[in-house]
Prior knowledge:
The complex is a heterotrimer. Chain A has helices at 2-21, 36-54, 65-88, 90-104, 109-130. Chain A is mainly alpha-helical. In chain A, helix 1 runs antiparallel to helix 2. The N and C termini of chain A lie far apart (51 Å). The mean pLDDT of chain A is 88. By secondary structure, chain B is an alpha/beta fold. Chain B folds into 2 domains: 32-124 and 255-323, 3-Layer(aba) Sandwich (D-Maltodextrin-Binding Protein, domain 2), CATH 3.40.190.150; 126-247, Periplasmic binding protein-like II (D-Maltodextrin-Binding Protein, domain 2), CATH 3.40.190.10. Helix content of chain B is 46%, strand content 20%. In chain B, strand 1, helix 2 and strand 2 form a beta-alpha-beta unit. The longest helix of chain B has 28 residues, at 2-29. Helices cover 75% and strands 1% of the residues of chain C. Chain C has helices at 2-14, 17-35, 41-54, 59-84, 93-104, 108-141, 146-159, 168-182, 208-226, 229-232, 234-238, 245-250, 252-267, 272-288, 299-315, 317-323, 329-340, 349-352, 354-384, 390-409, 413-430, 436-459, 470-496, and strands at 185-186, 193-194. In chain C, strand 1 and strand 2 (193-194) form a beta hairpin. By secondary structure, chain C is mainly α. The interface between A and C is large, with 70 and 65 residues.
Amino acid sequence: MSIRLASAAIFLIAALYAWTAQDYTASFGDVLGPSVFPVMVGIPAMALALSLVVFPGGTTSWPLLPRLFRQAMALAALLGYALLLEPLGFPLATAAVIAAVAVVLDGPVLKSLMIGVAGSLSLWVLFDQLLGLPIDFFGTLFGG
Amino acid sequence: MGSKTMISAKLAIATAATVFSLSAAPQAAQANECIAPSSPGGGWDFTCRTIGRILTELNLVDGNVQITNMAGGVGAVTYATVEAKRSDDPNLIVATSTVGITQIAQGRYPSGIETMRYLGMLGADVGVIAVAADSKYETLAQLNEAIVADASSVVTAGSSGAGGWDHIRLLLVARAAGLEDLSSLRWVQFDGGTDAVTQMMGGQLDVVSTDLGEIAGFVESGDIRILAALSTDPIPAFPDIPTAISQGVDVTGYNWRGLYTGGNVSDEAYDKWVERLKTLYDSEEWQTAAVDFGLVPIWIGGAEFETYVREQEKIMADISRDIGIIE
Amino acid sequence: MEILSSLGLGFSVALQPLHLALLLFGCFAGTLIGAMPGLGPVNGVAILIPLTFAFGFDATASLILLSAVYFGCMYGGRISSILLNIPGDEPAVMTTLDGYPMAQQGHAANALAISGVASFIGATVAIIGLTLFAPMLAKAAIYFGPADYFALYIMAFATIGGLSGVDPRKTLLSALLGLMIATVGLDPATGIPRYTTGSFHLYDGIDPIVALVGLFAISELLFLLEKTIKDRDVAIRLTTWIPDVKVVVGTLWATLRGSIVGFVAGVLPGAGASLGAVMSYSIEKQVSNKNNTFGKGDPRGVAAPEAGNNSASAGALIPMLSLGVPGSGTTAVMLAMLISLNVQPGPLLFERQPDLVWGLVASLYMANVMLLILNLPLIGLFTRLMAVPTWALMPLVVAVSFVGVYSISNSTFDLYVMIGFGLLGYVLRKLDITLVPLVLGLLLGTDMENNLRRALSISGGDFGVLVASWISIGLYVATAAFLILSVFLAARDRKRVPTEAG
């Protein structure tokens, strides 16, 4: 069932993709233009997805609810990181995300926090100081 | 046992890190930064890396200049980012060139010229029209004749897309030669001038229009022949290459290299950058580096450069409209 | 004879104490950078360029340092592929296919040793090729036109059809999804934005490394979360720390085949290390997969792509040095660095600066030996990473991936893209849709489309141009032969082992 649903979704995406491609025109450009290649890719993708809807192959077992919940927690932590990295600043946000993911993975809370703090500071030193890839230390919330 | 040792080692590093970082953090926040709005390699990257290096060597700035590559949309991503987040950052400079102004003129950036403060240009690359060494075209006149007679018989290429600066320069030459239907000329886009030249040597293409700097090695080795340099005077490093003007085709096509900074930067910070860049321009180091990279050193800075950029945008918009690239 | 004296000159350059020290440092730093997901050879080289300026190294010293870093990254990229199922950089994707299953079965040490030895042999074969044939190969490479590149990409996609044991429809669909994602961004030929939903962040398209790290690292995290803590750490109990010499020696032929395939891919500008790894793997699978062991931890499935990607990266130096055409992202960065040091690679480089070119070639030989010596003893250390409990290791790996991506682009947008790809990767893997073809589509899609359009621009719209050269005809014939052979072999295997058919 999963494969049918997913293939149907892919079919729709590919159809939308190929359909949108037709609008891409350039008054001034090469012979083939920007729309042909996407159509060339989109149509076989639609055909394959359709064949998987009609003749699905393989079985899929999704994780149980408590496990799904943990996965959602992990994704939420990652999204939170992307959202809060710039306001909170690197060390704080990174320590939090490392600790959160560790806890979701059944790590002991105190040790997870320790790893978070240690990990985030070492990463900042590694990237900003040693590798010379600048990362702001203080977030915009703290005037950084 | 593995995990415990690992964790305590991490903690030791972290303690050291905290001490280290507290002393280093404030310093890092003030570092000067040059954004190259492209991937590493190519002209903008060269501008930032070379200028960054020389600014440090001449002690015009404290410490190193941080080079950031922010590729996307031929500079559009950087333009949008600087406008939104860094428009008053006094420590930021961004590389640009004729290519960037062409994009603005064709409305391909999120906002116009006035969004930024333009600092100055430090040099220019000269556009050339090149053919393979064994090509049947010996002079620009022969090439033009063939193009006007049957534009679709000549395959041309360069490092920009259709409507980009390499393409426009070639169309200007073709138009001056008398070609009316400019879109009938075949144009093939490559990622760099060198890519196009090697394909031309392999017999896939007839003509390449691009900057001289990147392909100078092939001229020296005799693999390709330059029919015309799109400069007002002959290029010092290649005095034998005829200009288009000397062959009766009144077209020039420079690709200057310069810098801008955010639109809300104070006059004080703006003037300081212009002054630094002028000092850099006058230095032995820049003059050598520029010539070695195939640039002709030219300085236009400050208010004069702001005027120049606006004029050039207008010219580019007019050309693009004439040729049919924009409505 | 002439080559020997040139090489002698090279070694006299490379053996200077400063150059030796730089080599050692470069190898070490490269391995470290390559091992971190999100940072690959492009970043490794870019990170160290300011260092060469800061110390005022000359062109030869800088090039030696950066080449050592480049090679070091190629060695380092495989470590997380094998141990964590997360490729450190693009070419290491293929190593996950058999490397990770080997690690799960307790053979991490073997896999690491094989990849070390295969990398060494692959790179050495390519450097010998570079020594003997560089100018000649560069001349040959220029005759490879846009239509021929298109044929090459078609061949690459056709050969991955048989990549995984599952439904070939799913493999192909995965490749097409990759191609679809590759078209996002500004169209290079006309400059119009496609599928960007008006966002400037998407103008430069999806960065393959961001997609790659998301697809593998985040989906791996989600997979680990499916299991309870008891089920997770099975591999550790099985792990042996010392590699088995017999297993390593048994992969020798696979390594040699992979080296040659990879070298050819590397010499063609625009194909690069990823294609080298893919072609080596698919060809090796076709040759050797008699008992259907590929994808389940076959040592040859580690050896071939590792030899292939290293030999391709060394091969890519040929067009870079002798034509000035970068064959890959990394060589593009090295090219930029050379130019800013006033060295213009191109047809005259070998004549004008022989000490630089041959010094580089000699140091490549030495970097390779150094990397092998450096890497073999480290196997024990890396294998012990398996003993770190998942709850402590995985958050750090995810954090490194995030920081690596963020520190390069300075944009949190890329982090969202990464998370999105993580979710996509998880769902696709749950549905038995392999991610490798998707990554390949994403990596090669832009070049595939561009070369198709270039070919048609040259011909003025005549599709006949696609089969107008002997090179492209040869490639299509080889592709067809490959497909027929795989159908034939699949039919034979099905007869022999009927129970394995599902």
